[in-house]
Q: What sequence folds into this?
């Protein structure tokens, strides 16, 4: 074992892979997946549309329409693969970058943009989509997922929770506490760590001296590393972990080995801390290109299909853009809404005073 | 009427809450077989089982974080933080998640989580076991913060807190846990967000909450011998604050002294002083005075009698108020 987990494409680590970067199907002794042509085309469509939403959001930020955006570029397969492994009853707890999982949970992308536009702090109903709100404080949501899973246990439910976090988050106390809780309570939860190699500017070796998936054994549950740019493998591995959780076999840590091809957020400048050749190496492992190559090679899709998906992506991008720009600013009184579920005398007083003050300008 | 200690009144209130609603859970360190280090949860695991009275790993952030998850699944968790000084590892989950998630969801999520914290000094404890961290939480929008001072309130307030759909920080005065009083188990008590005049008086208003209510009542009795008629208000709720009761009282008495164990500097008394001054300016005969801890960390227990406001320091402040 090397002291540092490799980041480049030249040193492939031990991981589950079912589709090579060249689009070749490969066998794995423990994991396999049977997918119809229709299912593969559907995954490809997800990947392309999710990337298109992301590109549109980056563009909107550059044009001053969003305050910030956290791009998922390069992580589409990890998110779509795991997202499509979920059943409707499973509950997902995202960070702030899980736009691909949100897509799989039928959350309107405009709701994601509204958060980054500053219209609200999360405008979707988590219970409606079984997709929790974005969590910005790193790792906090891992404990929420475990608590939720403990609730499923108490309900005698047959669903699982999945929680997303990054390589940097594995250094957080909350993530480690969530591992302990999940282990001792045998909670039906899947820890899905997207190791995209970079926590803003800090490489993985600033977070861990062992591969992240190996952490799980110290907590008493299985850990597995999957090629995070392989949508087939991510789907297969997550499906198995979720099934194990639902069947009472407790938690699993999945480390999806992937790469953040863009900046941490639109405020970041990765040229200050990483070399361009690293990005070039990972471009060869692009999560979308390999599925396209697989569909082509196996004659599971024709040119017309790819053109149709591209056209759909363009239409989606335009729709997202138009509806984002049409988002109304909330009225000033909205500051006071939903802070408390019940009546709150102090807040009522402040609301009345401020709205009266504002009204003074209209006379 | 039943005679109960404050700890037992809380225990009875928790029991009633758990009987009333199967979604109510208790969780914390040593709350199960041991019944909590102060025995507030004594016997509840035996009667309600390990799934509802959960002995947790020793990690406060984990307690609050998983309670949030349980609440998202429809449960109503009551978390016990073993001592005031140990709430800080959970501060992030309380402040960034518990307090803000309902707003973040535009009201689609409710987090009916109660965080019970034994607070305050006076028990000869070691460091971190005698603190009064209330203003860290009153300053955090989204939380309700309450403090009980006597067995009857403890019994009803804990039940009201569990029924409330907002997250609540529930302070329990640990040195009063063993104080006994008559409790009418059929009396629903005051609404949770209301203050109470616990002793009416004409000359000066003493404002307190939690452990200092008893100290103020003792001071008021002592002052009676000097011919001073002191009114004592038990705030009960710190956020929201029942400004009406305060205003009505100080408008009548013209003098106000706030008493708490926490340091005076930027303590809760500062908020009371500001509000009372804004609302009662033309009725005040003296500035609002504050009695509390010093701007020091809580001292070793052999010094705590100097740090904690007592009857004499309260009466000294009353004298100073009358000196204006």
A:
């Amino acid at each position: 074992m090397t002291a540092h987990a490799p980041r480049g494409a030249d040193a492939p680590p031990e991981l589950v892979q079912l589709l090579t970067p060249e689009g070749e199907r490969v066998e794995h002794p423990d994991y396999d997946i049977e997918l119809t042509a229709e299912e593969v085309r559907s995954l490809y469509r997800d990947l392309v549309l999710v990337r298109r939403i992301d590109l549109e959001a980056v563009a909107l930020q550059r044009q001053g329409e969003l305050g910030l955006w956290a791009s998922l570029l390069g992580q589409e397969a990890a998110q779509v693969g795991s997202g499509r492994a979920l059943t409707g009853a499973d509950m997902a707890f995202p960070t702030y970058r899980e736009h691909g999982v949100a897509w799989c949970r039928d959350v309107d992308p405009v709701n994601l943009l509204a958060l980054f536009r500053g219209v609200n702090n999360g405008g979707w109903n988590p219970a409606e989509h079984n997709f929790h709100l974005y969590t910005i404080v790193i790792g906090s949501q891992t404990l929420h997922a475990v608590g939720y899973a403990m609730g499923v246990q108490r309900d005698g439910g047959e669903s699982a929770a999945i929680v997303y976090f990054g390589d940097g988050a594995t250094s957080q106390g909350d993530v480690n506490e969530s591992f302990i809780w999940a282990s001792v309570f045998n909670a039906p939860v899947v820890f899905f760590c997207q190791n995209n190699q970079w926590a803003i500017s800090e490489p993985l070796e600033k977070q861990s001296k062992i591969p992240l998936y190996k952490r799980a054994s110290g907590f008493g549950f299985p850990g597995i590393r999957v090629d995070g740019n392989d949508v087939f493998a991510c789907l297969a591995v997550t499906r198995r972990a979720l099934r194990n959780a639902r069947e009472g076999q407790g938690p699993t840590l999945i480390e999806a080995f992937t790469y953040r091809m863009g900046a941490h957020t639109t405020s970041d400048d990765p040229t200050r801390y990483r070399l361009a050749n690293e990005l070039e190496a990972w471009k060869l492992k692009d999560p979308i290109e390999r599925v396209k190559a697989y569909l082509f090679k196996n004659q599971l899709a024709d040119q017309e299909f790819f053109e149709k998906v591209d056209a759909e992506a363009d239409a989606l991008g335009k729709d997202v853009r138009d509806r984002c720009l049409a988002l109304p600013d909330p009225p000033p009184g909205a500051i006071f809404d939903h802070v408390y579920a019940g009546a709150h005398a102090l807040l009522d007083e402040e609301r009345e005073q401020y709205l009266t003050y504002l009204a003074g300008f209209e006379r | 009427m039943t005679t109960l200690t404050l700890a037992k009144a809380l225990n009875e209130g928790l029991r009633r809450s758990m009987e009333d609603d199967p979604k109510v859970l208790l969780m914390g360190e040593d709350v199960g077989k041991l019944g909590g280090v102060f025995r507030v949860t004594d016997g509840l695991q035996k009667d309600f089982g390990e799934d509802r009275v959960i002995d947790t790993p020793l990690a406060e952030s984990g307690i609050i974080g998983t309670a949030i998850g349980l609440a998202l699944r429809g449960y109503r968790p009551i978390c016990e933080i073993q001592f005031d000084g140990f709430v800080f590892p959970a501060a992030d989950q309380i402040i960034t998640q518990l307090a803000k998630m309902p707003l973040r969801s535009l009201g689609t999520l409710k987090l009916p989580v109660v965080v019970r914290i034994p607070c305050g000094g006076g028990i000869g404890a070691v460091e971190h076991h005698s603190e009064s961290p209330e203003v860290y939480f009153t300053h955090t929008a989204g939380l309700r913060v309450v403090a009980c001072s006597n067995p009857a309130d403890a019994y009803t307030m804990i039940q009201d807190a569990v029924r409330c759909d907002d997250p609540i920080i529930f302070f329990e005065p640990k040195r009063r846990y063993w104080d006994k009083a008559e409790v009418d188990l059929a009396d629903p008590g005051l609404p949770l967000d209301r203050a109470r005049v616990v002793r009416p008086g004409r000359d000066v208003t003493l404002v307190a909450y939690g452990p200092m209510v008893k100290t103020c009542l003792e001071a008021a009795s002592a002052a009676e011998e000097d011919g001073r008629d002191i009114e004592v208000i038990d705030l009960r709720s710190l956020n929201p604050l029942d400004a009406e009761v305060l205003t009505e009282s100080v408008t009548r008495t013209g003098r106000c002294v706030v008493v708490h164990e926490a340091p005076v500097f930027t303590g809760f008394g500062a908020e009371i002083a500001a509000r009372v001054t804004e609302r009662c300016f033309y009725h005040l005969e003296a500035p609002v005075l504050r009695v509390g801890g010093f701007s020091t960390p809580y001292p070793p227990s052999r010094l705590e009698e100097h740090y904690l406001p007592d009857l004499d320091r309260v009466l000294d402040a009353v004298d100073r108020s009358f000196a204006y």
Observations:
- The two ends of chain B are 45 Å apart (CA to CA).
